[in-house]
Every structure is written in structure tokens, then in C-alpha cells.
Amino acid sequence: MEFTQNFIDGLLKEAEGNPRLRTNVDLRDSDSDGSQRMLNALLPGTKVDIHRHPASSESVICICGRMDEVFYDDSGSETGRIRLSPAEGRYGCQVPAGVWHTVEVFEPSVIIEAKDGRYGEDRSERL
Predict the structure, then answer these.
(1) What is the C-alpha to C-alpha distance for residues 25 and 36, in angstroms, rounded to an integer?
(2) CB atoms near residue 48 (< 10 Å)
(3) Contact present, 84 and 110 (Cβ < 8 Å)
(4) CA 41 to CA 62: how far, in whole Å?
(5) pLDDT in tens, 37-51
(6) Considering the entire predicted model, what is its pTM?
(7) How far apart are CA 53 and CA 123, in angstroms?
(8) Which end of the chain offers a freer environment for a tag, N or C, measured as fewer CB atoms within 10 Å?
(9) In the Cβ-directed half-sphere of 103, how many Cα atoms lie within 13 Å?
């Protein structure tokens, strides 16, 4: 799989047609791969629940766009933000295991997400 501009444009177009304003592509190449590796295309207005992954950190790399990774404490109060914007030289971040987080998307964005454990099987929790 090659991540060309046409491929990225197609993902963002697909996200436009999704009521959730996002879409993803699984990057794992076998059912035996127990990780989560995906491209995620996100549009402004998408809502990602505040969540955490108790057993794994999560790497987030921004290919295009502009968005914030937003962090929270156990009561749901915001504790910090990291801007992701390749145009500004801000390419990604590491979300520590167990930290509540979500994203706020300011312009159409595509990220690579990677962590241990498949979504739904990794003990992830929502706030």
C-alpha cells in the first residue's frame, strides 16, 4: 500500500460521506497481528470520545492537516494539548498509557495511530 496524495484525498472524501466525519484504514497485514495500526482521516466536527488505553501508550503521527491531541484528568478536566500540524513542523506525539485523551480537528487531517492491542480487545475505557 502506498500513501500517495490521491490516496489521502480519497480517504478524506470518504470521511466526508461518513456521518461520524472520519474513516480509517487498517494497516495490519494479518489476523494474527494483535496491534492497532491504522490511518485515520478526520474532519473538523468529528467527535472522538475521551478515552484511555490502560495497557499501552499510543503513537500518533500527523501526515496532513491541523489538530490537537487533548489530555484530561480522571474528572474530565483538560490538562494539556499538543498541536499536530506538519506545516508547522509538529508531526506527532506519544500518548502515555492510561492517560485520558481525545482530538480536536481544525482542518481535514490524516494521522497514523499505533499501539499495542486491537481496539476493543485492549481494555480501552471511555470517560
Answers:
(1) 11
(2) 15
(3) no
(4) 10
(5) 999 999 999 999 999
(6) 0.91
(7) 7
(8) N
(9) 30
